[in-house]
Amino acid sequence: xxxxxxxxxxxxxxxxxxxxxVLGIILIPLPGPGLVVMFLGLLVLSQEFDWAQxxxxxxxxxxxxxxxxxxxK
Length: 73
Description:
84% of the residues lie in helices and 0% in strands. By secondary structure, the chain is mostly helical.
């Protein structure tokens, strides 16, 4: 993949992902799916950014732990 294509992909991921994360943060105290929107933004960003991938993996492991605890009760 050429350098220009990689740069365009990163730009598009940032253009879509960052507003989703910000919107998710805004929606957390308001009624609505704030955490879901924020997680979707991180998923978009994780396609091109390593730091976002680390956050997605951390969130997935925490969600799995919560689900496991809920199933045990």
